[in-house]
Amino acid sequence: MDRKTALRDFLMFHRSRLTPDDVELRFHGARRVSGLRREEVAVLASVSVDQYIRLERGHTSLVSDTVLDAVASALRLTPGERRYLRALAGRPLTADARAGAGGKPVRDGVQRVLDSLRDSPAYLVGRNGAIVAWNQLAARVFFDFPRIPVHDRSLGRLMFTYPRARSLFLNWEGSAREIVAYLRTETVRRPHDAELAAHVGGLMTASADFRRLWTAQFPFNGPREPSRLACPESGTTLHLACEAFQPTDAPDEWMVVYTEVEESWSERRNHPVADIAPKHQGRI
To answer: Sheet of 131-134: strands edge to edge?
Structure first.
């Protein structure tokens, strides 16, 4: 299906879901459609009927971002549906549409899930590898995330520009390679994303190791081996495997949860991670 047809079908479907009563819109006379008419969507969005018709017909070059956002609000689209609408219209995401990308608070439900994982370090990764939320244990095991500037709080910046990463990750090369492969895959998926291009360009400038690994053409298959982390406070090594889960209605976000593999657990005589992670934050 071409983009124009997909856009038309998407808008027609969401028009059909709403009735005048749903949006407190008065109407007169008999109705031949079950949902909202084009004219009614235009009234709700405070745009002209011609502007809405152009959008529904796929003539998106003649429709401004303001009109697009107004229509999304009129149709009561969820954040995920708004992102999909912008994708169909061939528009980059606005800051408001990038929920969880670093500029907006993370949904309360997602943060509650992170906080409930008391024995597992976990964090939420957004677009371009930005770390946008975490639990307390992740801030103790990995980095003191609250103290790190937002610009640097990403998988790539932390791995390649923060010295702590090299002493923390005993298998630094493998972990760094996975991050590079992830970013390379994202550039293929979003070849015209200026923000992603700037992020990769900054890493190219900042790190010779990033440049070296970028040219190696490693495919991204997700984390393949447990991370081995040094814990000098306890004189032990953590072996953590990770799994990534996608929150509902957030296609650009992944919750990364770490659990100990058996060899790490037995090596420390069954003491949980929280017992050996440093009790204080402050080292980044």
So the answer is: 131-134, 122-125, 254-260, 236-245, 227-231
Q: Are the C-beta atoms of 255 and 247 separated by less than 8 Å? A: yes
CA distances from 127 to 15, 155, 203, 228 (A): 30, 11, 15, 25
| Helices 65-74 & 79-88 angle (0-180, nearest 10) | 140
CA distance 7 to 4: 5
Residue 5 corresponds to which amino acid? T
The burial of 124, by beta-carbon neighbours within 10 Å (0-12 exposed, 13-18 middle, 19 or more buried), is given as buried
In eight-state DSSP terms, residue 167 is: H
Q: pLDDT (tens digit, 9 = 90+) per residue, 24-76?
A: 777 656 677 778 889 999 998 899 999 999 999 988 888 888 899 889 888 88
Integer Cα distance of 256 and 244 in angstroms: 4
Q: Quick check: 138 and 145 in contact, CB under 8 A?
A: yes
DSSP string for 91-158: -PPPTTTSTTSSSSPPPHHHHHHHHH-TTS-EEEE-GGGBEEEE-HHHHHHT--GGGS-GGG-BHHHH
| Amino acid letter, 96 | D
Scored b (16 or more CB within 10 A) or e, 22-55 reads eeeeeeeeeeeeebbbbebbbbbbebeeebbebb
Range list of β-strands (E), 138-235: 227-231
Whole-model pTM: value is: 0.60
